[in-house]
Amino acid sequence: MKISEYKQLFLSEAREILNSLNNVLVDLEKEPANTALLNELFRQSHTLKSMAQSMGYEGIAKLTHSMETTLALLRSGGAKLEKDIVDLLFKSMDTLGELIEERAKGKAEKVEVAALVERFEEIASAVPKEKRKPVDKERPELKLDNIDNSASSLGELQTVRVPLTQLDNLMDLTGELAINRIRLSQIVQTIADSALKETVAQLSRLTSQLQDQMMQVRLVPLEYIFTPYPRMVRDMAVNQKKEVDFVIEGGHIGLDRSIQDEINEPLLHLLKNAVTHGIEEPQERERLKKPRRGKIRLSARRERNFVVLELSDDGRGMDVEEIKKVALQTGIITAKELSALSPKEIVTLITRPGYSGAKKVTEAAGRGVGLNASKIKAESLGGTLDIDTRPNEGATFSIKLPLTIAIAQAMLVGIADQTYCIPLSYIAETIKVSQPQIKTIEHREVISYRDTVLPLVRLRGKFGFDSSKLRSPVADVPNGPAIPVVVVEGGAKKAGLVVDSFLGQQEVVIKPLTGFLKEIKGASGATILGTGKPALVMDVGSLL
Fold it and tell me: What's the rounded Cα separation, in Å, for the pair 399 and 401?
């Protein structure tokens, strides 16, 4: 087999090793005397060197060999792990990342490693010869041309790497199968054939099991996106002269790979916000009688068909009065509107576009877009963003996300002559109200609902239907029929969606909107119903 055929395998493994090297080094910087971390750093550097040598990638091989030599001296006690060596190792990690990405793009290694290699050699030459020990190889170098492809050499293969595009294709095929299963189930109800009904019922069970298995295959541990975070937090803290302990919990929790790709950037925004705005400088923390080192905690947990991501810090928290002041100064809300908000609702103003509490714009924060982008992204994925904070005690940002956005249980509703789907994850309940129950407050229709005021959203108007041409059964007359309302909630917000009829509940396979269809406001996707007709899936987050 040609060496080039191993390129993708090398790139995948090399990126994983590099992420791991960064995280081990972050921990080692905090615990310089931890020999287990030092041994792990040495072992993984040697693995990456062996892989690069086998592929003929000289730059990566030279740099990792120099790293390995210095790490061997640290292990033997010939050298001491000091700040300049730690900084050199971090710089080497960054350079290795650049070299790996050059290879990924099919380019030659143009990034220069000579200066780094020379610096490692200077460190080694400063150590007396009697304190030097030969680099011990913990595993033989990998020679790809000598690989034994027999079953005995492979052992028990527990996992395989599959391109994400193939999983996407399998998911699409499974979705099409599910759509046809629903159509068959509806058709068979009109045919008096017990054998056919039994066969279709069995097919439905098997298809459901296939869907469940495909869902499990697409669930990837959150470590996939969590792994680079410790190094990023460390670098930001160093640049801002802050001391931060970063803890990750629940990295084993699985979440749909496509959702992870989408939520990664919002999480980065929140992490930057925690370091920049949350954690105080060491001197200020001491003045407040807090530990010099701030703590940021990122955790994940499973709640039924949802995953909850929590990012908390023990920093300065947020002052409601300061938020009110900034909100009024930036013009994102009027004094009259502000007076009607609760303290929790006031805190959510920080997610409004244009809000920024930063004194100056930096690379990390200050433009007033990060939290707003995080909120919009979470809601577009069918999730919510919740904020809890206490002055001088810290803040917690909670993102609640569905396990997957490909298949969902939905309620079918009629609007004019069309059928729409509302994801059940948003629905609190369905009610019917009479026209006299509807009141108007500041030009907005509301009803009294469980001791609160519930705003109404008439979906006919939202989706552009002309009531003069398509008369609604929900006539605006005092003695008209009861009006169907779907009560939906997202985070702290609730609203009543006024529809024309309830049509039942169904599992739907959600397809993303493309082209000009992406411009449809209030829709997050589309599906094919059991009748074979298409239907839009509502984006409840944007409607709220």
Answer: 6
